Structures are given as structure tokens and as C-alpha cells.
Amino acid sequence: MGVKWTPEQESAIIAPKDSSLDNQTLLVAAAAGSGKTAVLVERIITRLKDMDNPLSVQELMVVTFTKAAAQEMSARIGLALAKAMESTEDAAMQERLERQLNLLPSAHISTLHSFCQWVIRSYFYKLDINPTARIGNEAEMALLQQEVLADLLTKSYEEGLYNIYELADFFSDDKSDAGLTAKIMSLYNYAMSLANPDGWLRKALEPYKEAMSINPSETLWGQYMWDNHVAVIDRIRERLERMEQILLDPVGPHKWQNIYDNQLAALGMLSSAQTWDDMGEACKHTDTFIKDQFRMGSKEAQAFDPILVAEFKSLGSQNKDDLKAMQAAVFTVPEATLQDQFKAQYPIIEGLVELTIAFHKAYRDMKQEQGIMDFSDLEHLCLALLVEPGTEDDPQPSDVAKELQDTFKEIMVDEYQDTNGVQETIINLISRIDNRFYVGDVKQAIYSFRMADSSLFMEKYNTYGDTDAVERRIDLAKNFRSHENILAATNFLFYQIMTKEAAELNYTEAESLIPGRIVEDAPEDWVGGDVELQLLDVSKDTLSASESDEDEGDDPENNERELDFIIQRIKEIHAAKKKVQNPDGTFRQIEWRDFAILRRTLAGWGTRAVEAMRQAGIPAVVNERDGYFEAQEIQLLLALLSIIDNPEQDLPMAAVLHSGLVGLDANELGALRLSGEDSLWSLMPAYAEEAQDERLLAFIGHMERWRTLSRRHGVTDLLWDIYESQDYVNYVGAMPNGLVRRANVLALYDRAKGYEASGFRGLFRFLRFVESLRDSNQDMPLANVVSEADNVVRLMTIHKSKGLEFPVVFLSGVQKRFNMIDLRSELLIDKNAGLGLKGYFPDIRVSFPTMPWFYVKDVKEAALKAEEQRILYVALTRARDKLFLTGFVKGFKNSAGKLSSLGELINNVAAVEGQQLPTDIITQANTYLEWLIMGFTRHLDGGNPLRVAIEYEGPTYFDLPDKKCRIKVEIHDGSLYGDLDYKADIDETTINKVRELQAVNSVELPQEIIDRFNYSYPYSDATRRTAKISVSELKRRFQERELEAGTIDTLNEPIVTVDTGAKRAVSDAILGQAIKLDVCNLDSDATSNADSNDTSKANSDVTSNTAVPTITVSADDLANSVFGRKPQALQSEEDVLTGAQWGTLMHEAMQWLPLAQYTQASLTKELDALVMKGTFTEEERNLLSDTSLYKFFSSDLGKRLIDAKRIERELPFSMLFEGKRVYDTLEDGENLFLQGIIDTAFEEDGEWVLVDYKTDRVKSGEDLIERYKIQMDLYKEALQRLTRMPVKACYIYSFRLHDAIIID
Predict the structure, then answer these.
(1) Which parts of the chain have pLDDT scores under 50?
(2) Which long-range contacts (CB under 8 A, 24 or more apart) does 542-549 make?
(3) Pairing of the two strands 1054-1057 and 471-476
(4) Scanning 89, 315, 390, 1125, which has its CA 20 to 30 A from the CA of 1039?
(5) 1251 and 1239 in contact (C-beta within 8 Å)?
(6) What are phi and psi of 439, to 5 degrees?
(7) Mind giving me the DSSP string for 113-156?
């Protein structure tokens, strides 16, 4: 039975067939859980099955966000193709689908980085880059950046460039210029996410330059400030209009008429201001109108309606807050002063921009010199190939881009909301306006820290049309993941808080989640039900709310209370054996793996939570995105490495001595410190001898050995010695969360190994590299030690959970404040808003906010909070059956009965009429809890506990979409939670038996279990054979057979030892013989007999198995050679060139040489031209045999190839074949999956002629036939199955025999 698609999914799959157009660009806005990946795969299969408009998988380009997603996508397509083949009886369709399946390995299904790498590799000869360039690892690039920037800054200081001293004074402290370095790297990294980095940087300077010559009110920033200020004035006016209506009511609070009059006067004064300075004067005097208090005696209050009193007070209080804030507005600074600030800022911002551009150039040149690239280079080099020179500001496609436009019939982009400006430009250049397929969800755009630009998606979302539009939008709103109540509660919340002004998107019916999964006949013990907001009131044990709001969310004690609550709830649900629903609709008992705890960040919480949960008997694992260098086991290792490098450092020395590595307690450490005035290391020998402390004596011995090892060997050898001598890996493995700790320790070894593999050496430099990673917040992820099959509770960040789903989700820590620390920086960066720089008083070295800084801060803060809303949306849509939201609050009132900030929030939103909440209320939120309270307060049942908590008596607007969703809000006494000292539910007797390795009980096992324990797999031989085999492995297997039969003596023997000083190699005439280079004759006719004898002996050793005569070649014989200096890519310690390596070069020559009639001279010229194009290096060119290649093109087979009309070179294929053809021990019917590349096939009289090139050293063609008969048969079979065209002849062309051998 086929999948039943929704109408919207069907449209996304078949478009443009449901429209009047032949081609369309589609934007598929796919909500969480809507099956977008399944739709994308089905669209690909549908396109491939379309016989009327045939499309090959090689004509598709599918871009995914990660390599894992690309692999999964490719696997899904392969499975879908196989199923489609099985489900059809149409022979033509089967033939077409089989061909697509065979072509799938060569399809472009990859990340954009991988695609860019392919483009660069294919067209690198058009770029000014080293053809052997490689992608450097993170360690290598970080250190290279440090070196380049250090050199650039040194030069700048010496020559006084880029206003360097003013920059250093502004951004750095007295100790170093690390602050300036960080700002340059921050600006550089941001600019590199854009298509034209240098152009954008210079464009960001223009507003500053312009501001020096115009009035501040006319600048971009001034207009923004004025518009925002007017918007605040309009809000005050709206509130006063409502306050007037309340006062006109007979039971309105007439006592407060004066408050209304004063605020109305303030409004009039502000509204009349027409110039910047006039507005400034008005703002300075607003305090005159906000001095009155909302006071009313209890007897007076009886005369007024308490609901109207509460509403009037709320509106008036909001006006007072706005008027008070105006006293510090930028308008209070005169325009002349502001213009002086701009003039002072310009040299600093100009110097920073020019210095960043200079770093970009210097870093690019250094990478070019060293033949290395980073990931941003992949995108920018690809872009350089695709953009017509001179059109960088308005990119137009180059010839390469046009060629790729012709190659790809459709470009498909998954997770489009996570792309950036460079990636968008690349996609546009290789596609047309009507052949793009974007799929994603802007509500899940949560990767701005990776420079993703959600505005690209949003622009299309707002402008794309309906069915018959060339650029068409299709919404997939039906969610097949979560229970309908979870979706309804999510809709209920976001209808209110996700608005265009507050979150860049209006959450309307079009954006809402529609249930696609219906739970029917759920058992009574099903875990699902209400969405629950569980809050712990910790006000009894903490400061009053008004005194502690700033710290809310970061209190370790209260975090433990919340954790205790979550642990108890998980244990209750698990002990009750609640049921969860499987994807197929059936129900099963809940397991630990069904729980997930999500938090915005796990730093400082995750490891402690895992430890507490395990003490409570709950298996749990945490995978933190960062925090690696803060992990206890890594900090200890880094401290140890630090004192090995320099033992005079007391702080890290004390940390090591106090740790389990040495084991000194606080008293012993104090006694060591008090034994003298020198460093701990200097005092240690005498103290250890006097105290006869074996631990210290042993540690001193280890330290001396490690210090010697660090000087003579690498960091990896040092680390491994520490691991072995201290049993460190097992030591950390025995700690709580030991699996992760153990993996972290091994990961540091791997990181050190990668560091040294990049050519860097030295412990000090490694520690400096680690320090630079920490300083630049480039933390490593903690090791991943859990798989999907592990039955454990998972703790992860919301970002990590994206794309995943769990039956029961706890969103924890909803009270934690958003991280706004980046908004305090002296320099703020935004793609559209530009650069916001603070002002600076150099005399007192104090910075102050400026108009540009305020402007960029407001833009970035709005974008940050919009993204936080999207992160919350992702979190709420991870749950399948049950969703808990947990956090703690410090009361809704303080001890004096005054409402806390949360209490005021409940009071303000409860009275709001209309679906969407006011923008100013939404944007004031600094936690998820505030947004949840905003939404849930207006729920009839769920919001009641919140309204009761503040004794709210006013009207509440309940008529909202999805108001029937079931929401439960519970407020608990937080003092009842927090004891995490759980006892294991196992008695001491059982524990003692386990310790002594005794049987816990003597229950007789059923026979079925005994049989299972004793089971032996009958096909054990198959487990030692791979299901997938390459042609190279196939060739080796055939050689093994010959070795077993005695027809050859060895495998992969070297064919020549080459002196790297030779300019050219040996003559074609002696091809196949062992070679002794007469190196001395390069400069002199005299040859040392001793050298000659040594060389003869060496070559005799190499060729002893082949009995080929050794000859001496002088320098004069080196022209027209086959072998010569080995290219760098082929060099090894022994400097031995193997037949396989030479064969690779000859194959590449046959791949790249144009098929034409050649003379010996013209062929040599063509090969030299390939060096100029970058196809071969000069060294590789020296290895190619001009004569052997000429003889092929002059042969009968070569002439037939040249004359052919259809030719396939380097044709990839994959197919299944019977395994017994290769491995005799395999069972009948077992298949192997073969992948390979056919060297050449050309069509002749409607049939294929297959050619395979060989460079094996053989005596006759019969040797090749015997060796490669099975391989050629498989190639023939693959070609026929791939093309459905018969093969008339198969040839092996031997470059050693200069002969074409036909295979019968």
C-alpha cells in the first residue's frame, strides 16, 4: 500500500504539473514534523520516473545541511528506487530505474561545501591556486591565522598603519592587544559569510563618512531613532485614550485625574517637538510629569470599580516607565556634540575595516603560499569561478556557471533557512529562475551563530505566489509527529507572541500546525494529555523578587531543586509503566530512551544532572555542544601539560597536586606552601624528602621524565605516556559520566595528533593553540558515546535536538535569561545595519554608547529575540506524546505585597484584547518563561493559577485560536525539592554478592535462554567479508588466487627505485626493466665504482623477484623518459615508485588527453599543455611515457576510439553480483555490491567496445587475460546493465606490451 500524501505534499511532489507552467521554482515552507524529507525524496523519485520528461539523477543537485543528512538522503533515494523497481512490471521503467540506481553513487547529493570542492577540483586550472592544495584542519588554520595576524600587527605598529595605536588603545587593555585581535577576527569571520566580504566592509564605512557632513537627524541612525521615539509616543497616546474612557465611567478612578492630566501634558510637549534639539529639551523635562503616585485608601477604593482601577493603574504605570526612559534618550545630546562624536569615530572604524581587509589579503596569500584552504575558501573560490569578473557587486554567471546551469535540470536545497549570503549567491548562479526547489521552515531558523541568514527564506516566503506563479510557495502545515494537543498548545502560544514586529513573522493560520497524527483508542495509562507548565516557587528560601530578578535563572541551588522535581516526575512515570504510542499507532510500555530533557544551554548543568539521575537509578547521558575545555578531566590534563611546560606556575601545580593524580589534601598542600617562599615546584624536592612523601617523590620522577619527553618527542607521545603511567583513561572512566569523560580524554589525544599532523610541534605552541580556541569561544564538542539504541534518558541542548523527536520531553530551565552578553561589545556587527561602534574618551579610557551603536544594538537585539522565539518553537515541537515545561520563580509578589516583574507581566497581558499581544510587551521578555506566562495567562483553565497568584480581578480576553487546548499550570513549593542524595534501590547483600562476583540468585534459566547464549552463527565466514567490494579489492583478490596457485611471487611489487635528483627518468626502450640511475654522470663522466656497486645491489634487491636485468642509465639517456622525479603526492620514506602509482598517472593521462590523431611531437606538446592547465605537476609530467601513449593512439584500437561518435571515459557504476565468483566460501545466493569505474567505452555499430588500461609488468597478453578475465566479465555485465546496450568486444590495452588484448 502506497503512502497517502496530503494535497499540499502532492503539489510539492508533482509541481509544476499541477500548474499551467512547464517549469517552476518552489519554496516549500515545511512545518516541524511535516515530512519534508519524505516529500523531497518522493519528488526526486517522481522526476526520475517521468518518462515524458526524462531526468537523470546526475542532472539533479541536492544540497543538504550536513554530511550525515546527505548520506541519509542518498540512502533513502536508493531504497526508494529499489522499491520502485520491485513495484513495477514495466520493463522500460525497470530499465530506467536500474540505470538511475547505478548512477546514484556519482550524483550530486552533498553539502554545499562538498559541491564547492567538486567545482574547484573540476575547474581549478581557471583559478590561481596550487593544484595540490588541501583543506587544513581547525588547529592548523587557527595557528596560521594567529601567525598572519601577529605579523600584520607587528608591521602596523612599526610603520604606524591603520591608526593602529588608536585601535589598540580603544579595544585592548594594558596587558596585550588581544581585544583588538578578537575584534579583527570577529569582523573577518562575519564578512566571510557574505558574497563580497571586502566590498561589504567598505560599504559599512559609508554611513560614518556621510555622517561627518550632515545633521545627525538626517543620518540612517538618526531617522531610526526618531521613528522609534515617535512609535513610543504613539503608544503613550493610545494608552491615554483608554485612560480617558475609564475616567469617564461613573465608577472610574476619578481620584487619579491629575495623573492623567500630567501624562497628557507630557504627551503634548513631546508631540509638539519638531527638531532634534527640541525633542531633547522635551525629554529632559518628562520627570516633571511622572511624580504623582497611584495612591488610594481602602475606603476611597470602595467607590470605584476595582477592575477599572487595576486597568487604569496598569496603563498609567506603563506610560510612566516610557516617559522615565526618555530622560536618557539620545535626543538629550545636542546635534553638534553628536557630529563631533562621528568625526572622532571615523578614523577608528576606518582603521579597523582597512586592517581587517589587510588581514584577509595576507591570510589569503599565506594560504596560497602553503597550498592550504579553509572551509570559507571553498565557498569563495567556487564563487570566483561562477561570477563573471567585474560583476562582483551584482553577480552575473560566468561560463563555468552557465555550463553548470546546462548540467543541472533542478537544484534542490534542504534546510534552506540555514543558508547564508555566499551559499545563496552560488545557488542562484548555477540555476535558473524556474528550476529551484527550496525546502525548509523559517520558524526553525536557529543557526545565526553559524552566520545563517533567515531573511533569505523570509523574503521568498513573503513574495512567492500561488499555483501558477513562476516562483511559487507551498505550505506543509500538517504535523505527523506530535499529539494534537501539543500542536494546539504551541499554536495557542505563538498566535499571541510571534508577530511581524516582534519576531519577523506573523504566526497566522497559514503558519499554524495542523494535526496529522490522531491518537485513537488510547489506553488509560497512556502518558499523553495536558501540556504542563510546572513551576517551583522558591521565594521562601531566597531574596525578595524585587531584589533578585537580575539573577533569576542562574542560581545553582534552585537549579538543583528543579532537577530534583524532574527526576521525581520521570521516576513516577516510569514506575507507573505508562504507555507511549509507536509511529505505527500501536502502544507499548515506556522506556528510559523515551525521555529527553532539553535546555537552552547545558553548561554547568548537564554533567551534574547526569550524576544525580544515575544516583536516582535513572540511566542518563548528556551530549553538550560545548564545555569541552571546562570538563574536569580536561582541565586537569591541561593544568598538567602547563606545568610540564613551565613548572614554576603555582596555580596549575596546586590543581594537579590536589587532584587524584597526586592526592594531597588541603592541609598537606598548605604545609608545602608554607615550607618556603619559592614556587611549589622549587620547594617540592626538599619537602618530599623531609616528609618522606612517596606520592610527591613519585610525582617528581614523573615530571622529570615528562619534561624530557616533551622536549624530545611530540605532544601525542607525552599524552600517551601520561595516560599509561597514571592509568588516566581508566581513572576518569570510573568517575560519574565516565564514558563521556573517557572519550573526552581520548579526544584530546586525537586533537594533539591532528595538531602535529599539520606540521606544528612543541608543547608550548599546543597550549597556546588550546588557549586561542578557548579565548575565541571555539570550544570542542564533548565526545558522543550514546547511540539511538541505548536505553538511557538523553539530556541535550535545543539546538542538538533539532530534527529529533521523543515521546516525552521536558523543556527545563525556562526561567534562564537570554544570553545578551554579545550586545555589550564595543563593536556590533549586522549584515543590514552595518557596524555599530561605541564612542571613547581616551583620557580616562572609558567607552560610551553612540547613535550607530544603539541602532545596531536594537537591530541585533530584535533579531536575537526573534531567533529565541524560533528556538522555543523547535523545543515545543520535539515531543510526540507528552510535553513538560519546568522552571522556578522567585514569587509573583514580594514580602510587601507588591507585584514582582512576573506578577506585573501577568497583570498587563491579562487585560489585553485581541489575538496578538503588543510588541512592546513581547520584546520586553528576557526568558522563555515570560513568553510562556504571556500566552498561558490568557488560557481559560491553564492560566487560572497564574491569575490567582497575583489576585487578578480584571477582565481577560479568552477568545483566542486553539483556546480549547489542554494546558495545566502548577506552582509548587520549591523548598520541598533539592535533596539529590538518592539511595540506590538495591540492598547491601546484593551489592556484596556483586562485589565478590557471586551469583545474585540461583534461578534456573529456561532452555530457550540457554540456547540463545550458546547460539553460533552459521555464516561466520560471511562476517569476515565486506558486502561492498571495489574493483581494486577485486583485483587484489585475483592476485591472491594467482599467489595461491604459484603463478606470481608477490603482490604490488615496486618496479623501480628512483633518485629524486634526476631531472628526467629512464627511456621508453627499457620500460619494464629494473633501473639504476647513473646520478654522478649528471655533472661528470666519472662514476664511482663503489657507488655503482651499491646502486646495483639496491636495485638487485628490488627486482630479485622478477629476474629482470639491471642496466645503468646516464644523464644523456634521460630524455623521453617514463620515470623521473616523483611528485610530492607519491613520495614516501623509501622513495619507491610502484606500478600502481605509475598506472594511476597513465590512467589520468588517458582521461584528460583530447581524443585526436597525434604525432609524437604533438602528443608531447599536448601533455605539456596539461601541466600548464594544472592537470599534472611538472614532476608528474616527467613520469608519463610519451612513447607509450603515442603507440596507443597510433594503434588500431586507438584509431577506432578516435573515430567513435559516442565515448564514455571514467564511467562510474555499481551493481550486485554473485559472491561466489570472487569468494568460493560464500553461500549460494549471497551477493556482493561492486563499485568501480570503467576506463573507456565507445560505441561502434550500435554496440559497445570496452577498453581497460593496464600497466602490469607481464610477459604476454595471456597473463593479463588470466589475471583480469573475471574483472572484465563483470565490467561487461555492468556496462550492459547500465546502458541496456550489448558489448561487442572487451580489450585490455597494455602500456608495457604496447598491445590490445581481446577478452573472449
Answers:
(1) 1, 543-551, 1050-1136
(2) 542/890, 543/890, 544/890, 544/891, 544/894, 544/895, 545/890, 545/891, 545/892, 545/893, 545/894, 545/900, 545/901, 545/902, 545/903, 546/894, 546/898, 546/900, 547/894, 548/890, 549/890, 549/900, 549/901
(3) unpaired
(4) 1125
(5) yes
(6) -135, 135
(7) HHHHHHHHHHHGGGSSS-TT-EE--HHHHHHHHHHHHHHHHHHH
Q: Are 357 and 201 in contact (CB under 8 A)?
A: yes
Beta strands in 1103-1218 (DSSP E): 1110-1113, 1136-1138, 1207-1218
Residue 994: how many other CB atoms lie within 10 Å: 12
CB 273 within 8 A of CB 279: yes
pLDDT for residue 1136: 42
Alpha carbon separation from 765 to 285, 647, 1050 (Å, rounded): 59, 16, 45
Residues 415-457 pLDDT 10s:
999 998 899 999 999 999 999 999 999 999 999 888 888 999 9
pLDDT reported for residue 1042: 63
Cβ proximity of 1265 and 1299 under 8 Å: no
**Residue showing cell 483566542:** 960
**Selection from 940, 602, 945 nearest residue 794 by Cα:** 602
How is residue 479 written as a grid cell? Answer: 504535523
Contacts 24+ apart (CB under 8 A), 680-689: 680/650, 680/653, 680/654, 681/643, 681/647, 681/648, 681/653, 682/648
Nine-digit cell string for 704: 622529570
Q: Which three cell numbers stand for residue 61?
A: 543537485
Distance between CA atoms of residues 82 and 125, nearest Å: 39
Report pLDDT digits (tens) over 516-526.
888 888 899 99
Rounded CA gap, 976 and 980, in Å?
A: 12
Three-class SS state of 93: helix
Rg (CA), the chain: 37
Distance CA 482, CA 73 (A): 23
188 contacts: CB under 8 Å, gap ≥ 6: 197, 356, 359, 360, 363
The C-alpha angle with vertex 907 and arms to 904 and 909, in degrees rounded to 5, equals 105
The 10 Å Cβ neighbour count of residue 179 is 17
Q: How many CB atoms lie within 10 A of CB 1164?
A: 18
Q: What is the rounded CA–CA span in Å between residue 82 and residue 1050? A: 41
Which residue spans within 571-676 are E strands per DSSP? 579-581, 587-589, 595-599, 620-623
Would the pTM count as exceeding 0.70? yes
Tell how far CA 863 is from the center of its chain: 20
Q: Based on the number of CB atoms within 10 Å of its own CB, is 467 exposed (0-12), middle (13-18) or buried (19 or more)?
A: middle
Q: What is the pLDDT of residue 1070?
A: 32
CB 1296 within 8 A of CB 1256: yes
Q: How long a stretch of residues is the chain?
A: 1304
